[in-house]
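Dear support,

I submitted the protein below through the web form. The confirmation email said the job was done, but the results page showed an empty box. After a refresh the structure appeared. I'm attaching both so you can tell me whether what I see now is the final result or a partial one.
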Amino acid sequence: MTASNLHDRVLHALEEMKARDIKELDVSDLTSVTELMVIASGTSNRHVKSLADKVIESAREGGDKPLGVEGADEGEWVLVDLDEIVVHVMLPRVRDFYNLEKLWASTPGRDDREARRGS
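What the results page shows now:
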């Protein structure tokens, strides 16, 4: 499956299952582990698990097998590693605490003053 097709399948699965606040982060310049991170919120532990299950099912239907799945037992934060895309499905309080969007949006070597100035 092409990365674009996988990307479309992941987003469709999340949208179909009513994920909240879906964000995509291109991390290709920051890490060699993956190209894209998709972060979404679920409304409950059960919803988080269902969202992750749907992403996995959709990827498999397209011929992609997850390299790993973490956190599915607890359902507070489930990580689905699809190689070029890593999907994080989280409860809102967990997402707020870890704030992955801010963490991965940071530019290496940039200090807080530069970030505040917008340089």
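Response: this is the final, complete result; the empty box was a page-load delay. The helical segments are 3-16, 45-61, 92-98, 100-105, 112-117.
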